[in-house]
Structure prediction request, 450 residues.
Amino acid sequence: MAAPLIWPDNRRELTLEVERLLQPDHEHGRAPGQEGPDGRALLLVSLDAYPRITYNLGQAQADLVLDEVQRTLTEFVGDNGLVLRSGRDEFAVLLRRADANEARRVALGIQGRARGVECGLTRPLLSVSVGVRTAEAGEGAEEVLVTAAVALEAAKAGGRGKLKLFEPFMLDALEVRHRLSSDLAEAVREGALTVAYQPIVSLKTGRVQGVEALARWAHPALGPIRPDEFLPLAEELGIAGELDHHVLTTALAQTRTWLRDLPLEPDFSVSVNITASQLQHLEYIDGVRHALSEAGVPAGALVLEITEASFVAGDDVDTYSLLGLRRLGVGLDIDDFGTGYSSISYLRRLPVSRAKIDRSLLGDVAEDPAQRRFLGAVLRLVEACGLSVVMEGIETAEQALAVAELGADAGQGYYFSRPLPAEQMTAFLKAAREQPLAPFSEGPERSARR
Prediction:
């Protein structure tokens, strides 16, 4: 039997169901001591990236996916609970007999079942975030609903496919997050974020072949906020495109100055990260073309970096955008390569020329023969697909030497330089041009200058 639909504007109906859940045991026909854990639980389940599912499959097919998720969850919960649609892409699961352990078990089961959902010939590989609030008979329904929503928001803040049980400290964390959201939106709107630059160094010549532009946010009260905190927040707020554009135009303006004033390498380029969602906008190519024209920078001096996860999850619109960018003359990199995707067939079909190997694959490559063999195999695989390689996260001369001997073309990391403001990077580029690092094939003792 299909679970009833409870939309956000019918909050009252959902509240009534939670009130029934929180009634004493005898109201549910359950005698004291009856088998099963004490307590109740409310699980709020949200489909991650539902707008992208809708875009890829169309609204009609996406609705069928939601119906199948609802059917799957109802079947999994069985007689111990009730599954309600609590929003466009959210479900409420009410468990009549559940302590914290049982609620967690059910939540993990829900996540597993969601990943296996099929709709006709479509298997969308869903991930869901789950917020859990355990409760006792007699608690207020409104408080349980609100705190379950807080747990769900905490789960979403941790990334896709996360599970969080409500804890009181989350209320303070939620307040801070809402404040950060408001302040970030204002900072992006006013262009208050800055851009730092980290060099990309050729391991064959020791020369700086380019820089990566990185967004930085110094909160007026909290100080520097880590990119891994504010970048996902910008995506969630729907302002990632504005942030990307600010970094792009700032980096291109700085690149124009460098190209005019410094004796750089002929193939010097600036790399800019872009959010995967930008590729879904067909006007994005025109935006990049306009930014290059306004800055007076040749397209070949710009490289756009897209994460491996974005390439794997991309669709025909993404591929169209990538091809358009390549025709424009812009370089394309796979960023964070090696961060968990087992299929590599996409390497041969994507219009990219370079892969940046994630620092997590570097390990103790200078000392561990097994790690050296593993990384070498990864590099050979990438090179067999016709791509050049940048090794990220290099922190020592020994690591630089090791990855150079394994065949990496370039390196990036704290060994060469931390990300620097534009003025300091200008001085770094001047010094590097006058005294480049020795090629790493000649040994780390030749490469002592940082």
About this structure: DSSP finds 15 helices and 14 strands in the chain. Confidence is low (pLDDT under 50) at residues 1-9, 443-450. The longest strand covers residues 208-219. The two ends are 67 Å apart (CA to CA).
